[in-house]
Specification:
Strand order of the largest sheet: 1-2-3-4-5-6-7-8-9-12-13-14-15-16-17-18
Largest sheet: 16 strands, antiparallel, barrel
Number of helices: 2
Structural class: mainly beta
Number of strands: 18
Shape: globular
Radius of gyration: 23 Å
Strand content: over 45%
């Protein structure tokens, strides 16, 4: 099998990852020299994803900075997609390398980035450019960015299969210091994808003409273009006792008919000089794609057909709790300070029109058997753990 089965499950983990190279840094000041080492683990829905990540950033002459990041996913999957297709559990590994360069000139920061990600049946290469500019006495920062990606999709069961995907992303954002305690930002992004956009292993299902209680599988068919738009509003308010409350809203829509909303609210509370605790809740909901269905009436019922649960109607609720401990090491020659961090997320997924097809795979005399189309709606929970250390030097 292949890790493409698990790509949709990586999304919650990737969204939470702290060791990502920024596309646009704040103008006027480059980040301090820093090294991070992370261990991440995602477990839910029969999928386990875990691995390390290392990030190193170094300034030169106060106006140049270089950064490098290594990120690895080790995947073990026995998800519902694998079970319904009749496949066995599989293991896969993905390695990702990123390089970044930043140049500060006055109050403008320019940055370049390149990322390569490889596994046995998928290769992704992305180049990015961004800039940020401080205005109005450094109270306003404008950011802009562009990324171009080129992916190759393969099929481990068919050596002759190879398709390509071209991706482009355009970003613009504004952050504003409103008061001494309140900061807000708005960001807008447009993404265009063209090429083979579906999973070569994933299937849709339709009613078996010979037995309406059963279903038959056929390979999904997707459009070869997709344009996505997203706008995000965020704010952070600093309380008098060094704590902070933050929140945000993100709206997403695309040409496949999907609309999604994300709401987030968090609280950061310091205890003594070294300890900081954080809690957060995030709610996500989306509608299905125009060509999605859990069960089609017949084969080739329409031009495009999909049963990917990530294109269905569903919602998720994520709860986070974590703590950070900062320390200074005056006795270490090259270390200014450091921090130890541990975060735990619990995510609950509930699907409104994606059913657990394993129940109709059971023998008809099994008391748990359910005819195709009447199986229980699918839901599951996932655990995400991140433990990392940061060193400033």
């Amino acid at each position: 099998m292949t890790s493409l089965f698990a790509k949709s499950w990586m999304r919650p983990l990737a969204a939470a990852t702290v060791l990502a190279l920024p596309l646009c840094a704040s103008a006027g000041v480059l980040p301090d020299d820093r090294a991070d080492a992370l261990y991440h683990r995602y477990e839910g829905g029969g999928v386990t994803i875990q691995g390390p990540s290392v990030l190193v950033r170094k300034k030169m002459a106060e106006k140049y900075a270089v950064s490098a990041n290594y990120y690895q996913d080790m995947i073990t999957s026995a998800s519902i997609d694998v079970e319904v297709s009749g496949a066995s559990e599989y293991k896969e590994e993905r390695d990702q390398y990123s390089l970044g360069f930043e140049y500060l000139r006055g109050k403008t920061t320019y940055n370049l980035g390149y990322t390569n990600s490889e596994e046995n049946d998928y290769e992704a290469n992305t180049a990015s450019f961004g800039l940020s500019q401080d205005l109005f006495g450094d109270l306003t920062t404008i950011t802009m960015g562009f990324s171009r990606g080129s992916d190759k999709v393969r099929n481990s069961t068919d050596p002759s299969f190879e398709e390509e995907i071209d991706r482009m992303s355009y970003r613009v954002g504004v952050s504003q210091i409103l008061t001494k305690s309140l900061i807000s930002s708005v960001n807008f992004e447009v993404i265009t994808d063209e090429g083979f956009l579906n999973n070569p292993y994933r299937s849709y299902r339709y009613v078996n003409p010979s037995d309406a209680r059963q279903f038959v599988l056929e390979q999904e068919i997707y459009p070869r273009t997709r344009t996505s738009n997203a706008v995000a509003l965020n704010a952070r308010y600093f309380l008098p006792y060094r704590a902070a409350v933050y929140g945000g809203y993100r709206f997403f829509t695309d040409t496949w008919g999907i609309r999604a909303d994300t709401f987030e609210l968090g609280y950061v509370h310091p205890i003594k000089p070294q300890w900081t605790f954080e809690t957060r809740v995030r709610y996500y909901q989306q509608g299905n794609a125009d060509f999605y269905s859990d069960l089609f009436d017949r084969v080739n019922q329409q031009n495009f057909l999909a049963r990917d649960k990530e294109l269905s109607t569903f919602n998720s609720m994520a709860f986070r709790i974590g703590a950070s401990y900062e320390f200074a090491q005056s006795g270490w020659r090259f270390v200014k300070k450091g921090s130890l961090n541990l975060f735990y997320d619990r995510i609950e997924f509930k699907y409104d029109d994606f059913r657990d097809a394993r129940f109709s795979r059971l023998p008809s005399d099994n008391p748990n058997f359910r005819p195709a189309g009447s199986e229980p709606l699918y839901e599951f929970g996932a655990n995400v753990i991140q433990a990392f250390v940061s060193i400033w030097f």
